[in-house]
Amino acid sequence: MTATRAPEFVTESRTALDRLFAPGSVAVVGASTTPGKLGTSMLEAVRNSGDLPPTVFGINPRTEAPGFHVSLASATAENGSPLDLAVLCIPASMTPAALRDAVDAGVGGVLICSGGFAEVGPEGAEIQEHLARIVTSSGTRLLGPNTSGFFRPGRATVSFVPTVADIRAGSVAVVAASGGMNHALSFLLSENGIGVGLGVGLGNSVDVTDVDVLAHLRDDPTITAIALHVESVTHGEALLNVVRDVSARKPIVAVVIGRSDVSAFSESHTGALATSWKTTRALLAEAGAVVVDSERELVDAVAVLSRTRLSASANPGIGLVTAQAGPGLMILDALLTGGVSVPSLSEETQTELSRHLPPMTFQANPVDTGRPGPTFADVLAATAADPSIDALAVYALAEPDAIDLAAAVRASGVHETLPVVLGVGGPAAAVNATTTVAAGIDVPVSASPTSLATGVAALVRDARSRYLRSAPPPSPIASTSPRVELPADESVAKDLLDELGVSTPPRRVCRDRTAAHAALAVLDLPVAVKILDASVLHKTEIGGVHLGVRTPEELDAALDALDAIDSPAYLVESMAPAGVDLFLGARRDPVFGPIVVAGLGGTAAEAIGDVAIRSHTVSPAAAVAMLDDLQCAALLDGWRGGPVLDRNEYASVTRAVVQYLAAHPEISDIEINPLRLTATGLIALDAVVVPTDPASGHRSSEGEWA
Amino acid sequence: MTATRAPEFVTESRTALDRLFAPGSVAVVGASTTPGKLGTSMLEAVRNSGDLPPTVFGINPRTEAPGFHVSLASATAENGSPLDLAVLCIPASMTPAALRDAVDAGVGGVLICSGGFAEVGPEGAEIQEHLARIVTSSGTRLLGPNTSGFFRPGRATVSFVPTVADIRAGSVAVVAASGGMNHALSFLLSENGIGVGLGVGLGNSVDVTDVDVLAHLRDDPTITAIALHVESVTHGEALLNVVRDVSARKPIVAVVIGRSDVSAFSESHTGALATSWKTTRALLAEAGAVVVDSERELVDAVAVLSRTRLSASANPGIGLVTAQAGPGLMILDALLTGGVSVPSLSEETQTELSRHLPPMTFQANPVDTGRPGPTFADVLAATAADPSIDALAVYALAEPDAIDLAAAVRASGVHETLPVVLGVGGPAAAVNATTTVAAGIDVPVSASPTSLATGVAALVRDARSRYLRSAPPPSPIASTSPRVELPADESVAKDLLDELGVSTPPRRVCRDRTAAHAALAVLDLPVAVKILDASVLHKTEIGGVHLGVRTPEELDAALDALDAIDSPAYLVESMAPAGVDLFLGARRDPVFGPIVVAGLGGTAAEAIGDVAIRSHTVSPAAAVAMLDDLQCAALLDGWRGGPVLDRNEYASVTRAVVQYLAAHPEISDIEINPLRLTATGLIALDAVVVPTDPASGHRSSEGEWA
């Protein structure tokens, strides 16, 4: 894929996308009357769009039929003004000329459905670059090529897939990397009772990218949530910016492809742990998207978030009311596994619940009602009124004779004070009856325990993410610090860390043996004695590190060894107390710019890939919380009597290092490994500052970020 | 829950369960004619069962209505022979007397729906124990109490949930811990086009357990797959035995609750890493169940496995044919993430495919057909014919004008030679049309990319699991080895390992300093010098381990230190070369008996809980494969030039240790930590043999196995 036009996150493009996505007039270039042809299907689809279809022109010099014209120019003349959209249903080789015609005719947007471009090899790539050159300086926006199109159910169908007409209209926008996934997702949403407001497949993204479409959707009042499907990211920082901006206004749920792309491991320790899949997911989540694992979870999350949203909150409490213990247990298990808080209800609440429920049921949260009866609305109201509860999850098997769940919600009024998500098991007719009543009060309904738990977890993650960004605005910590002299040896790197507020061990740089012995005399023992050479990255491997030195004799032995490997100087340094070794690396990601990668030191965490990743704009609150992402997070909180990580100290270190990197283009990587967690705080025991490769502009690492 | 009757995995119970689950005559005790009452709903439900409902008697001394009797005895008299089933719809306190009546009347099975037993406290538990005493020596089987019942759609509905009548009949059995989950799962299966042959909620399992029901289903020709829902396991070995036996004949898909029950960490390292959720899942999978993460994955897996099954195979190859690249990529990502092999097709196959597909599509596997055309059946046939392909996964968006996916399968005939799983995206009408045609040729259809991938992964896991068990029958390795003298110090423990064929370092037990110095003179250097005291479990913590000793002076220093902590003797031992430290622990699980728990040494793996667990009957092939479960498995295969684990050597060590434990009830735990992987093989660097606590019969560890 070649993207010749850098899509900035700008607002000027909005008008152009308005004409593209809400066209009043459409030309189908290569339209046909022959059944089965692409141009026939597309023409039919556009003509049959909703109740108020656009004015449609078929363009084909060889077809005489009503509504057909020989050229765009002739159609434009009949229309009386430039057409809003031209859909090109012609072979790849013919598209540049047709695109040029469209630009010349002042068309607002062009959609190219055909394949045969960059995805098939150099010849196609050349045509694609030609398209890019044509459109780049024009006022025309290009969607595609290599996409089945887009649709706004009930308003405009610009897709050659005929079944699109069955997709129900609604308020969710689907922004998919591929036309196939746009359709697959839109059908899934529709079949799960969630309407689609706009479905877009981006295809080869020569011009219009996900960044443009997200920006376009930001202020669209008909869209309440966005489902984002990502296959690869080309303009990382622009994508993060627009996600940050849009998700503050409406929720974005994202699924990222590429988990199984196990990249080659990198030469540098930090890079080796981060794959682009992990980076993309972590940074999208940091920016505000709810990142899910599959298109099914995406449907569950969008089902809830398109209808309701929690206020920004560090840890919203969920009240779980269930009419059956078994499914309730499954929901609780899934919620807790997903890190969702299901707090115990207050004694007051439990007293109130006991007035409405038989004595033998569990009422602390989950609230097990037993077979639902007439007091169900009271139970909901009492649970919702508990001060620790921010949203309700309610499950019951459909029993038409016993309970109308949605009616009970309506009667209780709880949906007017907090988000409520229903789960109903049973035959389709009963579930649909509940769904219909619930839709009337904008309450989402899930059809299984896991769906319910996934939707509620999405609600919580969305609220947490906004909380992490809503804390005091990130103030630059360290970008004004001075440049460091490059190449930097360990001591210079540690001097930089000192300036950034990161603790390092007391140390002396010793140019000769006398200085080393003097250092031994004044430093706390034992000391580490190390080679000091900016050109050596892996000191231990060459015998350049000697630990536990206490006596002049031991020092001499260490110095002898360092002399044997031609150490230009010696670093003599007090050893830190025992603790938990972390690593923290700031580096330039080729897609997303400066990022920070952190985790536990050692090979186990590395082999598992247990890392947390954030951007250089990470907020203080997000930096405080970031290590909670780690599977091994328990090691940071006093594991077996060990030290407890001060999350605020950690956040300061992280932000200082990555912001410094962001402000200093001459540096490619800053790696602290280990960053030791001790009883008295964090200490950087080793540090490497890697200069940017002047030839490439950044350190080359294509292999790692496939 | 109290289970007073130990359910063995026996066949004698079959007749009893036949009468329970396929009753020709049913009495509803506590039947009523008052709308809304449990006894009314149940009577109606049983009376309206299918086309050939059983003979039904209402039992209520206070109700005069057609079909009602004052007592079981009177109904039995009218029936002319003992009734097959009595359903008790009466309060808990009245159930013991009614159960006694049923036993006396020779009733085959009794179902108790009411709650109010062990789940509500001591008073209920007492009633439940009373029920157990009544039924334990009788010929009557008891289902429940505290369950909503069971159903055989189209044949018998013994559930008070009225919507059960809508569940479609089919060949899947649902065996659920709770009545609520039985209904929730059965509805989900039904709504996803999968019919249910028997749905059972076990409730408090006073008598009939999952073990009984699984054994009952083993030879039922109407059942092709079993969906098992597990909340807790009381008779672990019986459950594993029946799963092993039944899964050899028909697939079992299991979901286990309790992932979020984070147990307190145990005192012993090995135990700390295994929670009962992990143990249950690992052992069910080893026994042959396909263990899934949610009820939704269960539906996906059962949808496929109830219709088709692969032959036992170590690594079946999947051919993925997709009409749209985007969904195809998502399916491929999910398959590869799930460890499913999607092998490249042979050149011959690709040449054949190129005859049926346009040149620009990807044809190596996945096979991207582009928009499906008339050659689709040829593409399926060519892919299926590839020697590396054992099953086909096929996805397309529904395009009624372009392709009938199921018809293409039928035309190709591929479903007659290998398992085929279809995935279709689109509006319900189109998906249902495909599903109907596909059902005619017993080909399962999934409605989303993730569903398809989950179903195919289940197919593969089922085949692999049978392969691992079908390898040469497990021969006991070490059960005849002699008893070890207890309590055992480190040297005695290592002597045992030597006998079991596990390598240990060369060592000398030294009773005095002279012996220690003599040992230093003959052993390879450096040596470790350790305290030798069977009563000390944590040697390092008390200063009982001195490493890297090379000289007589260093030895004296180490011995001085050991003398200071009153070491009764010294262990002097050559140190092993560097490598990767694993741990391997054999222990007695209170539920499942002797098990082996293995993983990487060190705190990171421990904090993450990255362990593999197997039973003492683990097959050689399963022991060879077990460490592939680990997230950190890459560390075992030459990570950064390190040693490569010989999986066969590992399997021998594992089986020897756990089989020895199984044969020696006087031992509670055998722990090897570390078990070092070196370039020349595995070496046990430390070993502990823990005697069984004579008071409890096994080492107490309730806290860890909640």
Structure description:
Two copies of one chain form a homodimer. In chain A, α12 runs parallel beside α17. In chain A, the strands form five sheets. Chain A has a seven-stranded mixed β-sheet, sandwiched between helices. A six-stranded parallel β-sheet of chain A has the order 3-2-1-4-5-6, sandwiched between helices. In chain A, strands 23, 24, 25, 26, 27 and 28 form a six-stranded antiparallel β-sheet that branches. With 706 residues, chain A is α/β, with parallel strands linked by helices. The interface between A and B is large, with 83 and 84 residues.
Key traits:
35% helix; homodimer; alpha/beta; 28 strands; 706 residues
What structural class is derived from the secondary structure elements of chain A? alpha/beta
Number of helices of chain A: 23
Mean pLDDT of chain A: 89
- In terms of quaternary structure, the protein is homodimer
The parts of chain A where pLDDT drops under 50 for at least 5 residues are 1-14, 262-275, 697-706
Task: Output the radius of gyration of chain A.
Answer: 30 Å
Distance N terminus to C terminus of chain A? 14 Å
User: Biggest interface, and residues per chain?
Assistant: A-B, 83 and 84 residues
Please report which band the strand proportion of chain A falls in: under 5%, 5-15%, 15-25%, 25-35%, 35-45% or over 45%: 15-25%
Q: Which outline of chain A best applies?
A: flat
**Based on DSSP secondary structure assignment, what is the total number of beta strands of chain A?**
28
Largest sheet of chain A: 7 strands, mixed
Strand order in the largest sheet of chain A? 8-7-10-9-11-12-13
> Percent of residues of chain A in helical segments?
25-40%
